Amino acid sequence: MSGRSSAKKLRIGLASGVVSLALLAGCGAFDSGPEANLEAYSAQQIFELGERKLESGQADDAAVYFGEIERLYPYSEWAKRALIMQAFAYHRDEDYPNSRAAAQRYIDFYPADEDAAYAQYLLALSYYDQIDEIGRDQALTFEALQALRVVIERYPESEYARSAELKFDLAFDHLAAKEMEVGRYYLKRDHFAASVNRFRVVVEDFQTTTHTPEALHRLVEAYLSLGLVEEAQTAGAILGYNYQSTPWYQDSYALLTGQGLEMRSIGDNWLSAIYRQMVRGEWL
């Protein structure tokens, strides 16, 4: 199996770096230990050794070997192939900073190459795959969103654009979930004004996420607690217009009607402006 076919398989499948048994047999003819004198080998031999390390689950060693090609044969075609493989090997090893650095070098050196889209996608993944707990700092989520947007906008016809779009939506939803978590925290402790600020962010900035219906219901709760009846009714009206099939609408309906209030837009506040935009199409 050639380096080009292996790289292609990697790109198409985001892959596992699997190489054929024939390649493994071919690599067995020379020393594969970390202490090997790589200057005695050709760029292709070192590349195949890196692939062998990937196959055996030693992604950290593989990244080192791919890096040696860049050092020993800096302007060769093998060096270009090795750089994208190094970014992948680092990512598999969960060494995200080095994966990101290698991917960025590839983009800088070969911006027009067919693998530039994959390099940008790997760069985005180096942020995205570190998004885990909602309670943690969300700086990585913002970085992931920015890098995924580049994939979507710069490489819209690439095989990675659709995956980037899906991950972008999930990361965006993740940010909204963080706002909701903080908003609920304040609401449970009767810090109603602080909770309103968080839920407002979700409604205004994250309208397309799955958290918007709950945010509107929590606004109904918070505004009623603050005695801001018009705002509570307007939040309920938006729920009734866009999310009537959700349990959050049912909860808000029971809460408002239980106090003799209607779910309708009243007054001139930020929620009534959103209601006019959504229902009446009045954007000015």
UniProtKB/TrEMBL annotation:
Pfam families: YfiO (PF13525). It is a lipid-anchor. GO terms for biological process: Gram-negative-bacterium-type cell outer membrane assembly; protein insertion into membrane. Residues 1-25 form the signal peptide. It comes from the Bacteria. Gene3D superfamilies: Tetratricopeptide repeat domain. Belongs to the BamD family. The gene is bamD. The keyword Signal applies. It is found in: Cell outer membrane. Part of the Bam complex. This is Outer membrane protein assembly factor BamD.
